[in-house]
Amino acid sequence: MIEPNDLNDPALRSRAIAAAQGQEPFDVLISGGVIVDMVTLRLRHADVGIVGPLIASVHAPESDVAYSAKVTIDASGNYLSPGLIDMHMHVESSMIMPDEYSRAILPRGVTTAVWDPHELANVAGLEGMEFAFEAARSSAMRFLVLAPSCVPSAPGFETTGGNFDERVMSDLLARQDINGVAEVMSMQSVLDRSPRMSGIVQAGLTAQKRVCGHARGLEGAALQGYVTSGIQTDHELTSGEDLLNKLQAGLTIEMRGSHDHLLPQFVEALNTLDTFPQTLTLCTDDVFPNDLHKAGGLDDVVRRLVRYGLSPLKALQAATLNAATQLGRRDLGLIAPGRRADIVMFHDLKEFAAKTVLLNGQDISHLPDAPTETNDEKRHLKLRNSFDVSALQASDFKIKAEGTSAKIATIKRPRFTEWGQRKVSVFDGAVVCPDDMIQMAIVNRFGAHQPPRLALLEEWGTWRGVFATTVSHDSHNLTLFGKGSADMALAANTIRAMGGGLAVVSDGAVLAKMPLPFGGLMQENDLATVADDFDGIIAAMNKIVDWQPPYLVFKACFGASLVCNAGPHLSDIGIVDTFSGKTLPTPVLEFTD
Amino acid sequence: MIEPNDLNDPALRSRAIAAAQGQEPFDVLISGGVIVDMVTLRLRHADVGIVGPLIASVHAPESDVAYSAKVTIDASGNYLSPGLIDMHMHVESSMIMPDEYSRAILPRGVTTAVWDPHELANVAGLEGMEFAFEAARSSAMRFLVLAPSCVPSAPGFETTGGNFDERVMSDLLARQDINGVAEVMSMQSVLDRSPRMSGIVQAGLTAQKRVCGHARGLEGAALQGYVTSGIQTDHELTSGEDLLNKLQAGLTIEMRGSHDHLLPQFVEALNTLDTFPQTLTLCTDDVFPNDLHKAGGLDDVVRRLVRYGLSPLKALQAATLNAATQLGRRDLGLIAPGRRADIVMFHDLKEFAAKTVLLNGQDISHLPDAPTETNDEKRHLKLRNSFDVSALQASDFKIKAEGTSAKIATIKRPRFTEWGQRKVSVFDGAVVCPDDMIQMAIVNRFGAHQPPRLALLEEWGTWRGVFATTVSHDSHNLTLFGKGSADMALAANTIRAMGGGLAVVSDGAVLAKMPLPFGGLMQENDLATVADDFDGIIAAMNKIVDWQPPYLVFKACFGASLVCNAGPHLSDIGIVDTFSGKTLPTPVLEFTD
């Protein structure tokens, strides 16, 4: 759903002014509820009169005016909040189509999501964007689409299915249905003032649209340099101190729920302040399908924050008014006259759970299921045929070396990676993976038909098999982790047969597989089915790996190739380090007889 | 000063990113100060590096980076705040030209003012606007000019020198140097959905600019109807309860300093909340020249709020970050990288008094005094010759009646006026003003050459003379108050000789006079001179009236003809009541022999 300037209709405003004075009936009257006022953070009994998509009046229940309404919703015993706003998310991470995402999240009270479709764009370039625009138009919920700034995330260090330079970005930003520049992840290129990234940030400033950030691990001079470029937001917080530093740097904070172990720290840091920052908003970033199905999306972030000690009113303020203000959307985020009637009715202040949801004044349970343009099988063919890899053999997954031993470069740790070095045995022309390490492989899946790039990982625990995935941020090349070159080949070929997806292999057997034929990212099934499939993958993964939270977790497999972050990462080019500019086509540094 | 998109200059951003990392010198470094952080409301030691008009870095003083700077400002022992933003004001009320206003207020730390030039527009229509645009361009401070919505404030109930209908407003709103629709004062016409006022509000919504309000005394259904029209702000607060009601209605509050007796109530109401509303901003509205000279403008509002018990950090937040956010000006209101370098250095948190002020990164004490386009005597002739009234005689100020007594309609009280009725004596063909009343007269000064309109006022205290003024909101017709038709004629003719201004007359003598030849509103002198002149008027007024604060005060004389407010008011049409639609050409209802 993309709104034209529907609230600027003179006839609508006129009818609202009349209804507010009792001269015409409201279309809908929500009576008996308690308003959670996001401005004053006070609760008060008030009735809400709605005309078309507009809130016309929020008045005391005992008013003298003889109001009438075509439809009345009884909200007795319930609270009323504005619809929640997810400030930064990727629909693709839930592995379902946007219209299914909308069907899943609207009943939970999330009415707006700022969507960075950069997974689709990395897979299919502008065709991915066209899909996103169509989906935003046809979905019931409000998707605010951003123009992905990092396609690819680190040009020259990886290859993806798209390439958005300054010119492409300027064209995208000129569109009315583009709401800004999405997370600028190539942090070092901002600091280096690379012409490409400077041009992209500049295109956002010139278009007078928001330029969103990804300031992972930045502090001190690097943080200042990054923010002074004109970048406005961050969701990549690593600690409570990092949160406070970034608030002070003037960044709009999109506090994300995807790293649950950090939320208690964030709440603790916020509770040390005498004020609740107006620049504090919430986001989900990435939600797996099973989590979305069982726990929810932004609604779940709100609940968890409250559980960790944030006042429910503040959590809701972050998710509504603060978000709307930072988006420059005065129509959203507040139950007040003249605002858009996105309203959530819920019973328990401490456990936000939507009972009734209004979107643009309409009860979403009455919305007709509109035909979705994106579901036409004859369209979006680049996304429907995005996996272009030749069949692979076990030998493709062997790290070639000569002699009897070799010094190799390793990648240490699943997060905040560092370079390591190890001396390893060489047998039969290939490196032998030591017991305490696992192998990672990346195969370009966009038609390059090159041999896999290989690396050895330290501190990734003990594996008894292989995991393969075409969901691999943000290049989404075919990525494999584990032990055993034969299992790697089997896993790769299993994915090839599905045209993209996930597979778990052990001892020559496929333990679980999940097709993701749409862009190698998504299924066109309902959420329950996709969540079930994904649960099957997780169950299989739990058999082959002993996880060690919070860092060695299944999720780490999807982010291990995010080469724009600091430290070494494997890409389809080799082991790369965008901060130092280093690229190693093979991990073998030297070998000895 | 009107900025182009100067902060979007790629070379500037590039230099700032380099300087933030210590790779290039800052143009200016403010070292040793304590930042008042408007986001977290925390104080912290930090140095501020500036490049051109841009804050490039706000870093800890003990940084490892080897920063350098062309100029260093020592801020030791001082606090640093963003420049203050006056959210709603009329330069004209200070009776000086805008460039002189800028010279007076910039050193006090007020760097931005949202200017509604509706006095100039009511006097000279679009020529008044042209003057305002030129003044905004040539003044050192940042004037954000609004398009006056109420020229006149109540069409059909008064005549002024301008007439801005929907078409004129649409043209104005298309200009880049127009920042929105100024206070919509014709409240009743909004509620009545009059085509003219609906069209004007609609023009603002269509232009996607702010539509500002004036919701004086509105509550209940009228408030809801007014706000649902799309109007976004209010500064016409009458009590602490009114403030909370209007915050809850979603209005951006521009808490004004011009009614000092209300500020303690406002502070008390705000201090009952668990949060400091992000929609709470500050304004001056109208400041007399002597007050501006002695006490200041928005800086004085901040000081008084603190004196009345508001936390200094919150008062400053309202005057900076909250204001900037509500204006949609992300470049203002925060000392953070990437923002505009409007910075005020001050010593005492509780008594905000600017010591050094930077505007766009430049110390304002070093700014060259630019030639002012508006000072050319051969230009703006309509404003320089705005007083077109024939000479008047004592008989013009007599309320005609026959017989020996008459029943007349009266206007009760200086504020929140109400209709009254009185039986009065008639002598020699004219009403005799009872001892406990005074007379008010209004003469159209825009060339209508009609006899004065007359009314009798109750509860205006005891007067021993006459006050005449061409400053009379918002029509600025010649307005007189007091006793004695001969003194009225003398006062009117004294103003006529000056081509506009103020005069105090008693017993056939002119006690004080002050020329305001520019639009009948302003002088082209320096503030000290104008303040002196105005002090002379006040001294004379204190001789002829015993004031009874807070309502019976000198200021009431300037607002008594604001016919858009509820209740009866005298205009050049007669006694009018815009809420009931009533107009009386003469107060005489009936007379008896």
Strand content of chain A: 25-35%
Residue stretches of chain A low in confidence (pLDDT < 50, at least 5 long) are none
Oligomeric grouping of the chains: homodimer
Instruction: Characterize the overall form of chain A.
Output: elongated
Strand segment count of chain A: 31
Largest interface: A-B, 75 and 74 residues
Annotation field: number of helices of chain A: 17
The helix-and-strand class of chain A reads alpha/beta
Largest sheet of chain A at a glance? Answer: 10 strands, mixed
Cα distance, first to last residue of chain A? 65 Å
Helical proportion of chain A, percent range: 25-40%
Rg of chain A, rounded, reads 25 Å
Average pLDDT for all residues of chain A = 96
Describe the fold and architecture:
Two copies of one chain form a homodimer. With 593 residues, chain A is an alpha/beta fold. In chain A, 27% of the residues lie in helices and 25% in strands. Chain A is built from 17 helices and 31 strands. In chain A, strands 19, 20, 21, 22, 23, 24, 25, 26, 27 and 31 form a ten-stranded mixed β-sheet that branches. A six-stranded mixed β-sheet of chain A has the order 3-2-7-16-17-18, with helices on one face. In chain A, helix 9 crosses helix 10. The relative contact order of chain A is 0.13. The mean pLDDT of chain A is 96. The interface between A and B is large, with 75 and 74 residues.
SSE layout and pairing:
The structure is a homodimer of 593-residue chains.
Chain A: H1 10-20, E1 26-31, E2 34-36, E3 43-45, E4 47-51, E5 54-59, E6 69-74, E7 79-82, E8 84-89, H2 98-105, E9 110-115, H3 118-124, H4 126-138, E10 142-145, H5 166-173, E11 180-184, H6 187-191, H7 195-206, E12 210-213, H8 220-228, E13 233-234, H9 240-248, E14 252-256, H10 263-271, E15 280-283, H11 289-294, H12 298-307, H13 312-327, E16 343-346, E17 354-359, E18 362-363, H14 381-384, E19 405-412, E20 418-427, E21 430-431, E22 437-443, E23 453-458, E24 466-469, E25 478-482, H15 485-498, E26 501-506, E27 509-515, H16 527-544, H17 556-559, E28 569-571, E29 574-577, E30 582-584, E31 588-592
Parallel strand pairs in A: 1-6, 2-7, 8-9, 9-10, 11-12, 13-14, 14-15, 19-23
Antiparallel strand pairs in A: 1-4, 2-3, 4-5, 7-16, 16-17, 17-18, 19-20, 19-31, 20-21, 22-23, 22-25, 24-25, 24-26, 26-27, 28-29, 29-30
Helix pairs in contact in A: 3-4, 5-7, 9-10, 12-13
